[in-house]
Design goal:
The protein is an alpha+beta fold. Helix content is 42%, strand content 15%. 17% of the residues are buried. It binds zinc ion (2 copies). The site of one zinc ion has 7 residues, from loops.
Amino acid sequence: MEDPDTLTALFRRHGLKVTRQRQCIFEILYSNPAHSTAEAIYVIAKGRMPTISLKTVYETLHSLAALGEIQQLDLGTGSTRFDPDIHHHHHLVCSSCCRIENIDLDLGLLALTAAERHGFMLSHTEVTFRGLCPDCVARDSGSN
Ligand SMILES: [Zn+2]
Ligand SMILES: [Zn+2]
């Protein structure tokens, strides 16, 4: 994802409205850990600009995704995650607390045979590794 000033220029270039509220969301995304939910971004934004609405947060996130500045991810955690890291990567997901980490791993197209491809023209492979993060492992072993 680009820095907030570049995003402001990009929005204007695409004829999209730029408001202080939208810029506030750019700044939050730029300085916060990846994979936030819209609700989490909204809570931070509301702390800075009490009049901001969840609708504004959603609209801004969807505009950023449409411009290819962030990725919208469904990692099976119950809510859509927004990832400012748009380079192709995979994820580790904690099944207990939903912590998400990036993994850089080149899996290519996993060498599917023609029959396995079912005629599809493949573009990329996404893998989600699931398990327990160190905190959840420690908590589980502590309670036993
Ligand atoms: Zn965890
Ligand atoms: Zn990611």
